Amino acid sequence: MASRIEDYAVIGNCETLALVGRDGSIDWLGLPRFDSAACFSALLGDDRHGRWLIAAAADSCAVTRRYRGESLILETTLATDTGSALVIDFMSRRSGVSDLVRIVRGIKGTVAMHTDLVVRFDYGAVVPWVTRRDDGRLELTAGPDRLLLETRVPVRGANFRTVGEFDISAGDEVVFTLTWSPSYRSAPAPFRAADALTEALSFWSAWMARCDSTGEWSEATCRSLLTLKALSHHETGGIVAAGTTSLPEKIGGTRNWDYRFCWLRDATFTLYAMLGAGFLDEARVWRKWLLRAVAGSPDDLQIMYGVAGERRLAEYEVPWLPGYEGSAPVRIGNAAAGQIQLDVYGEVLDTLYVARRAGLSENDASWALECALIEHLATIWDKPDEGIWEVRGGRKHFTHSKVMAWVAFDRAIRSSEEFGLSAPLQRWRSIRNVIHLEVCAKGFDASQNSFVQSFGATALDASLLLMPIVGFLPASDARVRGTLQAIERNLLQDGFVLRYRSSEGTDGLPPGEGVFLACSFWLADNYVLQGRLDDARKLFVRLLSLRNDVGLLAEEYDPIARRQLGNFPQAFSHLALINTARNLTSAAGPVQQRAAGSSATRTAPAGRSA
What pTM does this model have? Predict the structure, then answer.
């Protein structure tokens, strides 16, 4: 059975990533890309579905681990009664080749070790053909995939596994390398693991040297930035939402989705996080990815795309994998790519506006695309959609969706006004005002003194916390304060925020999930805007305590079972962490910047619409 989600660490090469358990087992790895079929799928089943274990043979072994400095090089110390050893795990890449390196070093005494390599291509379904090459490397091949294992440890086949035992004494070193390449190309040459380690450390150190993150929360911020970098593709610029598929939002439940794609919704949060930390190149590359992905007819805009901007992300189930702790089905692809979610228009227009303010270079095609998107939105903003949470229970007039449609027009207007771009401003201002009036009239429930999830409903929704953050209404507005109070009364569990009450049936799925970590960070952001700084700090500190021992967060958390839930590591959670940390340490943090400039926050008195 797989480890608890928080027992995993991540290693990667900015093309893909692997999950390494505290027990020394790599239980998840797709090659060559984040969204490729996994060759290690024990995460969603058991060791028969593919994994690579390197561990002490002793029954009793104390395990501690850390990343080496500000890098993605994982160091795990194993201490037994007979000695101690260090396992160094990392990934690197060459042209068309991915390398996974595991180095075992003796520290003290002698430790008996063993390795168990189970390769199962295509999500645990395909057993490879194994041969020994003339150069001594073991070749594991099936269809288009080839893995080459190199080590001086004598390994042997046993029950369709590759196993071996070895002793490691103080001062000794044993190296394992596993290299992926297409089976139809010539095999890549062997490489020196020591050189790869030096290059990997140099890469991560050089990248983090550009980071402008200091202050009280710098350690947490830097680790989150490194995690975002691990989730980004070095060539395309796409940033996947998470490194995994089908880790459940409820143990044993069916809320299991594939998050190895790029969501437009993450765009603005990503840009603020990257710009705030000084990563202008990454922000520029992300913006270019965004423009390429959304290019084309405005009515074809999707809410997510593949790593390189692919549009067809067909969803299917993998019946031979039982799911994480029996949480089935396991899904590949994501049918939500075909949903209508009006809020993404606001995210895209907000992102491109922020990019302009940051001075990122642009071209005429960008503004032409934005105008086309706005003109299309003008024809559909008043239609129901599936909303930010990608419900599968039917479309509604979600309040957050309408708010973000307002954001789209507001940011387009501001781009035109502030940067001298040609636009039909009078008509856009008129539509912006109509949307604002409609949200305030139909999305507000006077009996609760709160905005609600959808027009005419009474259910609450954590996405309403974004209303003051995006500048739809000022934080001082009585309705915003009332909404915050209603969420505190009704959507908190152990002090953390639920997206909504899943038992109310809005999403068309069986009820039950954990608290949503990004929403909990948004609550802290609202406390900042309300001047409740002590409450914001206390909540932020509690959220930081939910990270695992190497600083990683999944999508959700179960406060009863005290364990992380959902796909891992989750970009949305780490983005929210970075931005909230800046909000707490800077008078010009992302929440203040985003909320400060809109027409609503500039002109609307408390309790009135703009």
Answer: 0.94
